């Protein structure tokens, strides 16, 4: 099935913020280009949801009304309405509680 993806701005902000902080914390080993590469890789993984990344039961309380998917080091909260997948939130694996 072909899906349309709607990504909320919060998702992109969280991904950018995470990698920006990593870049600031480790400037000697983590370059600006590494940051951009990881941001792009993380956002591209969103398009694998429901294709090659299976649906999971949410493990954090604030996501209880959505589905959850795990791709790479990131978890995504999303819903499906017809053939549209809306991604509401993202969380890096080391920040999962």
Provide the fold topology.
Blueprint: E1 4-7, H1 9-25, H2 32-45, E2 67-71, E3 74-81, E4 84-92
Characterise the protein shown here:
Helix content is 32%, strand content 27%. The chain has helices spanning 9-25, 32-45; strands spanning 4-7, 67-71, 74-81, 84-92. The protein has a four-stranded mixed beta sheet. Strand 2 (67-71) and strand 3 (74-81) form a beta hairpin.
Detail the poorly predicted runs.
none
Let me know the largest β-sheet. 4 strands, mixed
Give the number of helices: 2
- What is the alpha-carbon Rg in Å? 14 Å
Oligomeric status? single chain
By DSSP, the count of extended strands is 4
Portion in helices: 25-40%
Mean pLDDT: 94
What is the molecular shape? globular
How far apart the termini lie comes to 33 Å
Major β-sheet strand ordering: 1-4-3-2
Q: What string, H for helix and E for strand, traces the elements in order?
A: EHHEEE
Residue fraction in strands: 25-35%
The computed structural class is alpha+beta
């Amino acid at each position: 099935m072909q899906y349309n993806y709607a990504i909320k701005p919060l998702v992109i902000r969280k991904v950018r913020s995470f990698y920006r902080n990593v870049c600031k914390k480790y400037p000697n080993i983590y370059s600006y280009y590494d940051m951009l590469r990881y941001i792009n890789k993380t956002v591209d993984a969103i398009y694998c949801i429901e294709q090659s990344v299976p649906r999971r039961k949410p493990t954090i309380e604030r996501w209880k009304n959505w589905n959850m998917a795990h791709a790479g080091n990131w978890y995504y909260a999303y819903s499906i309405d017809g053939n549209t997948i809306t991604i509401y939130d993202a969380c890096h694996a080391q920040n999962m509680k």
